[in-house]
Amino acid sequence: xxxxxxxxxxxxxxxxxxxxxxxxxxxxxxxxxxxxxxxxxxxxxxxxxxxxxxxxxxxxxxxxxxxxxxxxxxxxxxxxxxxxxxxxxxxxxxxxxxxxxxxxxxxxxxxxxxxxxxxxxxxxxxxxxxxxxxxxxxxxxxxxxxxxxxxxxxxxxxxxxxxxxxxxxxxxxxxxxxxxxxxxxxxxxxxxxxxxxxxxxxxxxxxxxxxxxxxxxxxxxxxxxxxxxxxxxxxxxxxxxxxxxxxxxxxxxxxxxxxxxxxxxx
Length: 266
Description:
By secondary structure, the protein is α+β, with helices and mostly antiparallel strands. Helix content is 35%, strand content 19%. The protein has one domain. The protein has helices at residues 2-12, 23-32, 49-57, 65-72, 88-106, 123-134, 223-240, 258-263, and strands at residues 79-83, 112-117, 140-146, 154-164, 167-174, 189-194, 209-211, 254-257.
């Protein structure tokens, strides 16, 4: 615990230019503080995945008040983190299985689960990972819809996990990919998944109810304060993204360039 707190204090001093610190910013900074070796990257040090990711989550570019609160005290909100140590470029089947198993174990017992994939850094591997996870037999499904209004010509990819009949978890994705919205451009690839159904809501036109992180009970929060935090999060997201937040909404796991999505099968 002492070492963890010390690392958190060190990370807190990291400065960045704009848009939040990048994966490279963290690596350079950690080398300067002799936490990473001269030739090491965050892929080599999976033990740093959780503290680096949580540090990034606490920063203003995330915009979402709910995510920032969770990052400050994940145990208080019963949010568990699992680090997938497999390299998807070499062990895609293992990385998929580890992710799916972690979500299955957390279902119903945790409020939410953060799956960290520190070795998933290649965009082609991200495409394969999403397609294969979404096609996995059982409780997973995937939708991939080209958005003609997206100026970057991205496919909006939505992963879903069935928590029970007619209730799905919306899977929120982040990672060190330049084509992602700033609010999702984390130094570590991550999936954020609500793994309980309490508070789930009917969203949009779907007949299936959906559950996501904002449905976690916020002890002591009134409806008025919750609604205020929700609106502040939406306003901050639009401010960070320059007004267009369509690719950063909770129902979208990843927004991936169409040429990349169509050019790589699973």
